[in-house]
## 1
Amino acid sequence: MTVSFLIAMAASYGVGALSALAGARGRFGRGLVAFAAAAGAAAGLALGLTALVSRAPLALSLPGLLPVGGGLALRVDPLGAFFLVVIGFGAIPAAIYGASYSAAYEDRPASLRLLGLMFHLFLLTMSLVPLADNVLTFLVMWEGMSLTSYFLVMTDAGEERARNAGLWYAGMTHVGLLLLASALLLLSGGTGAGAFADLRERAAGLGPGIRDVVFILAFLGFGSKAGIVPLHVWLPRAHPAAPSHVSALMSGVMIKMGIYGILRVALDLMGGGPAWWGGLVLGVGVVSALLGVLYALMEHDLKRLLAFHSVENVGIILIGTGAGLMFHHYGLASLAALGLIGGLYHVLNHASFKGLLFLGAGSVLHAAGTRDMERMGGLIKRMPWTGAFFLVGAMAISALPPLNGFVSEWLVFQALLGGVAVPVPEVAIVMPVAVAALALTSGLAAACFVKAFGIAFLALPRSPEAERAHESPFSMRLAMGLLALACVALGVAPFAVVPLLSAAVAALAGLPDTRAELAAGLSLQAPAAFGRMSPALMALGLALLVGAIPLALRVLRLASRPRPGDAWGCGRVGQTARMEYTATAFAEPLSRVFAEIYRPMRQLSVDFHPGSRYFVQSIEYRSGVTPWFEQFLYRPFLQSATFVAERVRRLQAGSLHLYLLYMAAVLALLLILARWL
Amino acid sequence: MEYVVGGLQAVLALALAPLVAGFVRWLKARLQNRRGAPPWQPYFELRKLFAKEVIVSGQASWLFRCAPYVVFASTLAAAFLVPFILVPGPMDGVGDLLALVYLLVLATFFLALAGLDPGTAFGGMGSSREMTVAAIAEPTIALAIFSLALGAGSTNLGRIVTQALGNPAAAISPGHLLAFAALLIVALAETGRLPVDNPATHLELTMIHEAMVLEYSGRYLALIEWAASLKLTIFLTLLANLFAPWGLATEVAPGALAVAVVSLALKLGLLGLVIAGLETRVAKLRLFRVPELLGVSFVLALLAVTSSFLLR
């Protein structure tokens, strides 16, 4: 049964890739490619769900496909199955959306072909990452996922920005691969046998020093994919550059493979570690969450703003995960499970609302031709469906009840509150700081999405393009609608989701199955009787109240028809878009409050009339945020790399004799070394 | 029976909310040597607003017309979670203190969006400032919740209150007092009182809440004003009943409920006096000094958590 799902998945992606390569174009061709992707994703989703529900791991080995290092080994265990579900869940709407969205590439057949081919290969390799059961399979699939997504980022290779983004992405992802490969090879001890089962056995016998090194390498490697600060720099470049349905996948799904990897290595392969592992993950999570949302606030490119929010949400996921790792060390098993479940719930939620928001941004880009929020406005009237869906996504990401973001943040909060049970006071006292940071993050996220939705969709159009915007085609609306529905369902019915997450977590490092403890009837209950809440009843109450109030007013005959009038403009008649608050103005108070972090730069140049300084001819104002991560962290590194490269280049003189001499010299050196050691 | 009383207390709070707001206004006027409108003036204002014609800007979208209902509904939903006179409330399993705070954020979110919708400069200015204040007040609220939860072992309001009732000495512990001070400052910020916002002026450059709702009229404005006074009542009741829960009814008995109503009235009156006193004594802070005030409240809350952890 499960094997047939796996075959169906691979076959669908294969068919899709081939038909894209064959140059499937037009309505039918694009539909075929999209259908193949959706079918493959559905098969993956089914495979993951069956494995999660049945809880029976399924192992599959195909040594013939990869002749070295143990061959292609796959295994579906609950943890991997959960991430497979996330991939399928995010990929189905993205594929549907792509059917219409890729029409923009019709006049560039090469781009369309590349897009379709890489989209399928990306989905295939990414789906196999959480199924990999040995080091080689894992690394091959990981690199496949990175390379195919690199090509997807480069779909618009004609643009300078896309090429720049691709360069950053390729650089960061390969540094990450290097770190991962060293971590996994260190864990396998160079024995060549890289089966995960062997790794588990070996890890138990390793010294603490080596284990720490493996963990740090793996955390940095996976973290660079997940987009933790300060390794997040590729993310705000690459996500906006890719086509929007690909951005939705990269941001909603791919970066979660980093979370998967951290869980797999730290908890599954190594069986947990000292408390500081969890502390490090938690600390990095806090910093990522705060800096991610702070930078998002200053961003006026809609897709870059969303990309920074991915950094924030990965931070929230890591806060839950880190707390879980920490509690695991102290033997607080059910609290550990709660933290991890909170993190995984947020993984699923982020896939739904970030996918939705990126698709919404894609629709706006499609309709208004710009990603600059200062040129949007009034879109809610021109694109009512997209507006409504985007609003749902904005509410969900701001953690507002009764939508899904609230549920996972509540779980993470509860896990952190449980932190006082930790026997070490220094650790327990750190928890409040994490609680405060998480609260600030969600407050700032709400502010940021008031800005994003309010400036882009409300008020008057700020440019002729926005004025002429139109609603997107049916398949794009369908994809957004599905995700909006998922946001509501995941928010209202956590009692149905938590048992599955509990299954994914239960297998890890001796953690218990807490589903009976956590989900009681319609409500959620944190262990140790901490908090109790029922999102379903809350949603019901809210819906009843929102419905009852207008009804009551009608019954009381107080609901007269509103009369249209003018907005108050201080007595001035006639309103123009230039009177509106802009995105920059909206974020101004927060940019002042957090000036220490932003180090804002302002330039004001005023041209006066030559006759008198009292007549101003033009004023030019520029403002921005200093990207000090890049200035102080990356620039010195890149400069020294360039410096070294310049020097090394002299070695390459083009003379064959010289090269032969190098070889002989190195050989001699190695022989001497071998003799010596 | 419990459910009936539990539901009724929220409706009662809704009915009394304008009185609370009017009472603070009246006290303030008295303290400033003015005669002031009677405490029940807000009821007349609400009736007048409900009867008036609604004028909506031609630029506004459906969101502008839905927002007042969402604001009112979510504030009322939050009120259902508050133990006004009876603990443990029957709604305790529906939502805890975190859910209550996020329901109030939901109201703020829609109000801020509605402020941006008509596309005027004032509305945007109000929204931007409101969200700024709300965001930086959030950590303090979370920490105050943390310190309360530490004492009670739960974030559910009913448990916090029953725990405090069972252990009166905890109410005067340093942790509790610090958390009270922190939450008081936050309550001032969240409900748009001095020194953060001035509920009495419509002066464009200083106002936050009033700027945001400037475009509203008629029944929409009535709903928003009513929700604002309910929010004030909720915050005052939380301050009163979480930190000094005495007098709350623990069972549905006429005598106990009567005592609870009287004690709630007394506590609200006392807190109203505190707020009116504060509002006559302090001047409004510049907008960019507000983060400093909220920073103070954050530090207080952090100290509250630390001390209630160490003195556990």
Note: The CA atoms of residues 211 and 262 of chain B lie 36 Å apart.
## 2
Amino acid sequence: MKKFGILIVGVGGQGVILASNILCDAAMAAGYDVKKTDTLGMAQRGGSVVSHLRFDKEVSSPLIPQGQTDLIIAFEKLEAARYMEYLGKQTKAVINDMAMPPASISLGIAEYPSDAEILEGYKQMGIKADFIAANQAVKELGNAKMLNIYLLGYAASYLPFDHEILAGAIKKRLPPKLLEGNLKAFAAGYAASR
Amino acid sequence: MKKLLSGNEALALGAYNAGLKLAAAYPGTPSTEIMENLARFPDINTQWSSNEAVAVEVATGASYTGVRALAAMKHVGLNVAADAFMAASTTGVKGGLVIVVADDPGIHSSQNEQDTRHYARLSKMPVLEPSNSQEAYDFMALAFELSEHFDTPVILRSTTRVSHSSSLVETSAEKQPAAQAAFKHDTAKLVMVPTAARVRWPKVLKREELIGEYAENCPCNQYIPGNAKLGIISSGIAFQYAKEVFPEASFLKLGMTYPLPKNLIKEFSQSVETIFVVEELDSVLEDSLCRMGISVIGKKYIPRSGELNPDIIWAAAIKAGILPEIKDTLPKINTPDFPKRPPLLCAGCPHTGIFFTLSTLGQRSALPGKPKREPKLVLSGDIGCYTLGAYPPLSAMDTCGCMGGSISQAVGMEKAGLGEPVIAIIGDSTFMHSGINGLINAVYNQSKITILILDNRTTAMTGHQGNPGCGIAANGQTVTEVNLEELVRGAGIKNLQVLPAFDLKALRNGLKNAISSGELNVIIVRGECNVICRKRSLPNTIDTSLCNRCDACLLLGCPAIQRDGDKLFIDPGLCTGSNCNLCSQVCPQKAIKTNEAA
Ligand code: SF4
Ligand code: SF4
């Protein structure tokens, strides 16, 4: 296998970092060398967050080079579009169909881009993105905090190892009292992708 | 055992296993987690020091008793600590002393970008530079050994990308026992009066030479043979990027970048045709090689500023003619300029009210349709969460340069003869760090400014560490609080008000009184940081039948107040309700309803 690169993007507070930590644990459990790095804004206060994760027999740079992302998991639509240069033809995309407008938009200084604008780069690159209503799905499951695990479940079928390994990593990271609900969210996400 | 660790976690574990006895730090991104992880070990004495100079002094004192000690900080923290740092170099150590400094290339979370390696030349201390978490772990043990063997403090330099990326680490099961503290009187070494210092300094210079000789065989400097056409000299994370771009090349990977292994470098340079120096930030290695008469390529192609990545090195190599131009297989994508998403003060932040007050009194923001006015009041700012008050819509900060500078700069402006009222804004943690020096100076020099100390009971920006004013130690223990009011009064301040952070009327009146008095004034604005506040209450709601879209509430910049088409609404997941209630105080239509009990 060639190095596998995963980009997870979203807004501070959405659970991006926990999701990428769990993916790392899973890749490690699957026997790979793993590197990951998170980039946060000045603090995590509602700014844009991106996490790079790579695994292979051996990995040197923790940052994914341009065009070499195999899987992008976007927790928010606008963030899905922001890191276009990392995507390539081979990229699989899982995008949460949800908009969190930055402050400049509420203030009327800027406009939230349309779906077509957001997807323009994906279209030019020939990437077919899965747009999924994850917020709705976790609301139905009864807890908005499980968004990240639901998205991991959905993305699991794009990974080069079994989804059970990922479920195992979730069990290790989450406190027991949150486990049951989150495993349900994981299973629901996984089922939705099939 | 193999573990996935961030660079900072690996540094902490490495120090623990090396028998560390004491660690002192001031939080600062990207270095903060080193201390947070050390504080989990009950057998290490850990402390958040009030600033970085104090941290180095504390660690140096511990080293003088023969135990292994560490001080950690971010790059700009070393500027604060420079005096203590130079002093430690002069006396040398007893127990191993490691000073960890984390640089921030690309300025992810700092006020500037600077290359700590320059301090090595100045202080004659060796610098170790790990390039991943494994090395962070291993180099920590090595740093302590070197420190004791050569009688010198050692700089362990990290960067954001090393500190904040995680990779696998093979850790050792054994922990070295920590030494027992014991003081041996040794005035010739530890009392730097000129007669003693004159003897000591040549020893420091000799020490530098000896370490240079050692560097020739230091296992941290690695020759990685490859193609003889291209030789790469690199260090730190830049090595990892270069390895990605030139998998076939020969490498000289320098784990110690000061002093340099001159013979090793010469040998390497003779074994390859072209040498490409790949280093982040300044041309420290390149300049040294040039002084040695070795011709290299480097900063002509690699930028001197900003964080490197494989793509930048790739592009540089193509420009330098080392790599062939590849026909770009990726389509060039033209994406529109998407709106940025800068960090914001949290919903329910105790700083929002005072910034809103400053913004309105200072004519900083205007309602939609109203003309922009010339700002009034000069607002001298400082470093912390509250620096985010500089962003629109609040726009209530005019300067921000370094930790603790706000009060002194404000005094300077006033003394320069500025006609407008000058207001200094500083957080509680920053005040304890070095702002207090400015306050003492303001009293002494009879300044007429207004000083706002925004006391949110924590060091919020770096992740809610304790500080002397909130009485929570590094290990979470409750300790004596330094009383801010008494401290301020003790410095000689007569005009002191303590105002509640969420009461706009009180803030407005208090601030107006302070400004109009024309005297030196301190206002402590007190309200707990929303992130650590335990009180919870039901979110507020907007009655859309009453809301006439005057947009006054939007001027608070609260991220919970959002727009959906023509309507405003409050995000119930973000709003902290009656803990805050600022928006309902602002709304002229009384359209924002509070929902008291939770
Ligand atoms: S972390 Fe605390 S102090 Fe910082 S912006 Fe949020 S509420 Fe305000
Ligand atoms: S009460 Fe108003 S200003 Fe305070 S957090 Fe809620 S929406 Fe924001």
Note: Chain A has eight helices and six strands.
## 3
Amino acid sequence: MGKAFDIELIFTSIPQLLSYLHITIWILVASLVIGSTLGLFIALPRIYKVPVLSQIAAVYISFMRGTPILIQLFLVFYGIPAFLQLIHIDVSRMAPLVFVIITYSLSTAASFSEMMRGAINSVDKGQTEAAYSIGMTGTQTFTRIVLPQALVVAFPNFGNLVIGSLKDTSLAFTIGVMDMMGRGDTIIAATAHAVEVYIALAIIYYFVAIILEKFFVKSEQKLQRHDQPVHV
Amino acid sequence: MVIDVPFIWTAFVEILKALPLTLLITIGPLLGGLLIGIAVAAVRINSVKIITPIANVYVSFFRGTPAILHIMVIYLGFPLFINKLSRYYEWGFNANSIPIVVFVLIALSFTAGAYMSEIIRSGLLAVEKGQIEAAYSVGMNRFQSMKRIVFPQAFALSLPNLCNIFIGFLHTSSIAFIVSQKELNGAANIVASNNLKFLEAYIAAALIYWMLTMLIEGITALLERKLTVYNRGGVV
């Protein structure tokens, strides 16, 4: 086994792990895109207080935010095949990556809809009234006036959501996805050194998180440039 | 039907037995994290030289990496370290004799510490400076004004964040099954594979987590109403 702790292995395993970073990013981007779209549609019935639909949305959000993502991952992984079997569709050979993206999208949708609900409610009601007063329809008012302002309000929270999702992706390997964590397992099996590989993984996640954070701070400054105080 | 509904109840009862361990892995790190968080927040608020940059890196690193890696690095790394020390100083003991749950508690305490320090910092900074000045003006010393004026308000202001971190760590404790801890998720895994009823077992586990989360939210809401009495505003 050689040395108990081989510091060199940290550096040699980083490139090997990095070659699987695109899978992590793919899970992140796919679940964010699907989840935010879905989340917006879940937020709408709650904002406009649509009967029945709004209660269903509330239960959905409460459940997704009330259970660990790991449990959700297992529920989707075992639940979807079981339900599809009822209508005689066999998905037992579907790639685990699909289940991961479904789970993370559903989870993102719940967080995103709560975020958007808060942001949309924070837009001054006078804005809606002003839009109506110049003859805009409800949809126009929402998409042209309210939504753009709400997105700016929600932006910092969205940054946190993305970094949170990035960290959640580290659990995808539990249902057999070959992402960075999965690749890490194979390196551990080959070298019998585990701590070094996990440290290497931590370094990669940390750097990705820092890059995302920098990006969000920069974008936020850009988005809020019209809000800057006027210097006389 | 593919789902064995009565088995969900059987699994529910079986998994619920793992609740004490889950609560230990949730509350233990939060208490440990509170101590770390107070120390780190104190360092960062007073901007102590040299230690502040270290504290900043600690907070950003632990917030930027997944908790599962904290558990794995400490669970696998600490024994190497302890065994080396033990051999060097001839303590005559081996890290194998330490229960795994200790490593989980240490690892998650570090995770919680990073989040706690941010909560404490923002809570303290949210209390208006005028409050401290007012306390000084009536002759309180620094300690008194902190204990009687700043902390109670900072605590009330931090409650929503504390509720979130409590729920967050309840959910994070589900990762401990990776190092074969029999907490709720670990128990669900065992029930699932023993009976080959995976979906039912995880539904039962999800229901337990969900109920616990709602319970925490309910208690926080009650507590918040009590603690922010001073802030009701209005005339009467």
Note: Chain B touches chain A through 41 residues (CB under 8 Å).
## 4
Amino acid sequence: MTPRSARVVVAGASMAGLRAAEQLRAAGWTGAITLVGDEPHMPYNRPPLSKEVLAGKAAFTSLSFRPRASVADVQWRLGTKAVAARLARNTVELDDGETLSYDGLVVATGMRPRRLSCPGPLVGRHTVRTIDDAQSLRQALTRPAVRVVVVGGGFIGCEVAATAVALGARQVTVVDPLPLPMAGPLGELLAGALLKRHEERGVRFALDAGVTGFTGDDHVTGVALGDGTVLPADVVVESVGSVANTEWLDGNGLDLSDGVLTDEHLRVGGRPEVVAVGDVARFPNARYDGVPRRVEHWCIPTDTAKHAAKTLVAHLTGSTAGLPPFAPLPTFWSDQHDFRLQSFGAPALGKEDVRVLEGVLDGDVVVGYHTGGRLTGVVALGGQAAAVAASRYRAELLKQPAPTA
Amino acid sequence: MKVVVDMNKCQDHGQCVFAAPEVFSMDDSGRLAYVADPDDALRDEVEEAADVCPLQAIRIED
């Protein structure tokens, strides 16, 4: 039982914040819950922003999550931002001047896109993080015969490039400082196969290339590269990683060097009344090497919310959680053109030993990543058959010990 | 409990199968099949399946 007057404040009202509220209820929290979120929208689903929604195949209005009935009584403070916290006093300050006191605090403030700091005009430069970003990018991409430069050859960048081709852009070029797209998470073998697939479908690449500036007076007309080339561009998409929204936690002695550092139960700064969820949380995964990392996969808000809520409610109600350390099995997917990438486990930790497990690289394929002879992750590339094959390896990855810290 | 999957939205990611294997399954060609009226004892699992659906295509109707 929790006292009615007690309150948990959830800072951040996107997927992680919503799931945290739902899981607090599922874990038995009957006190008040206040969700504070800077966007004016109710929590919505982000993956379609670079794919179906950008392509016009799904409406913006279809993205909202359906909250569980258990959170019907939470207080939503949308369009409001947490700007400061005093953890020693259990208070959070909002940008409208109000100070909220809390018994428990959930840090769910997520990430924002990193921006390029090169000289040149700002108009015509886009990011893809929010519904408003995607709306504005869709407008830009649906003008006739646009030339598009995507800066950043990661998953989002490559998804946007694929979608831009499908929308009929005149020219789509992906710029990346590395020699292959998506090689960081996937390794060279699959990255090479992906480069080929993208090129066959009309995406151009400028690799080993850095952006030095943007040409144009008011509106971007081109992207200048380090070797002097200027790629003509009507639309530029910056997809160069993200920055954690943790400034509001400054001054509390926390490790905010990349997101907010947590322990193996997602507790922040040794404070049992403060937990972090979603991609802002930098947590150790007991399934792997115990090195704390932020994970920007779609499943992480839900996984972290479930564990963190149990941790927090146990503390607030004076019971013992008795939870094993947090040990999620990572999973991610990416839809690009007519193929899907589906991953289970942690391929990036096994990039030194990559083997084709099933299929062939230019068809449906399942690739395994190993370290010390142990399978750390699998990635399927291709159609549905590849995804089904990959899911067979998921059981093997799950069986592997999640060592207790 | 009544489970409804919007098959126009479903893209056969299979996350629901992992969350609630007694309710959701994939056939050999990777298409989703599901039990439309599962036992109420499975509610937690089905709620989790609905949460982890990347397309948010699963709805629980009481």
Note: Chain B has a mean pLDDT of 92.
